[in-house]
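Onboarding guide, step 5: your first structure request.
Type a short instruction followed by the sequence, for example:

Predict the 3D structure of this protein.
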Amino acid sequence: MRPPEPSGARTVPDGVRIEILRDPGRLAALAPAWRALEAAAGASVFQSHGWISAWWHGGAAGAGFRLHLALAWNGGALLGVLPLVIRRHHGIRVLEWAAKDCTDYCDALLAPGRQHLVAPLWQAARRGGGFDIAYLSHLHPDGVLAREGGARLGLRPSRRSVASSSLALGAWRDGAAFQRSLGTGEQKNCRRRRRVLEREGPVRFREVRGAERAPVLEALWRMKREGMRDAGAASPLFGDDGAMLRSLAAALEARGCLRLFALEAGDRLVAVTLSIEEGRRLLDFACAYDRAFHRGSPGILCLVDEVCWAIEHGYAEVDFLCGDEAYKNRFASAHRRLGAMVHVRTPLGLAAAMLDSCGPLLARLRARAAAPFRSATSLPGALKA
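The system replies with structure tokens like these:
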């Protein structure tokens, strides 16, 4: 198979050709070679061609992103990909992972035995220019970029990191054993929650398949939007009309790794979880519940039932992915910090990096400035709004 004609390609000493792809029209043509690389590398869905393409066509193409994919070729074989894009953020051109806002674990994709290609790939991306600062986040400690080390690549660690957690399932022979292993208080809470939901009718957890998936996905999007609105939060995945979620779900379905779970009370859908199957692991990608049933904590019940389902279907782990929500800390058996690396290219990028490094200090100063006001309002007789 011949690769698409490269633009600005460079050859490194071992005969591998490195190029930067900026033309969105060539993204589809990369699919066969990229998928062959995925199969050889045992790649995560997050580094797959289907995932990056779904993100691009799901809304990123019209949101100001520019492709900056670094590719390593050996003849017609694709040996490595740094899936990068450039976008403007507050006037600063930032080089970052493609689909970063929808991806929990970001990394390079390399053929087996080709880890050394990460350096020429990154050098080509850096020489390609067009950005002020590179910010490569969500780096799993076992990933390629983290193992290779940022210092060798001219990247420095960022102060920013995110939490990730998971639950290993090997300790339980079935779902009932898992539920019995929960603390006495948690077991009582689960029974109480089910009783609350049972006022609507029998409570049922099930996997959603086929034509039913579309309306359940729509319900997930609606529930999540309502929850984010109430919390004053925002997310690129749920900030549009649902096009991005539908696009990514379609990519997962085409890959055969979409798992969609519903918790129902009577004829009401009260919670939904969209998970990704990767081997014997389930990745909990998106979860939401109907706020009208918050007293029954349907989201927690859906998680417990999903863990039971996973045990009984032979999975080894449920990965809760990124986020430090309290329920993840309660159920997880492993916790990780996902780091980030930064490269400054222009004076504007340097100014942005310096301002970001002052973030903790500015937060402390704001807290200190607000302290006298908080103390005054707590005094007897203080004026109240």
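Each response can be followed by summary notes, for example: The chain has 13 helices and 17 strands.
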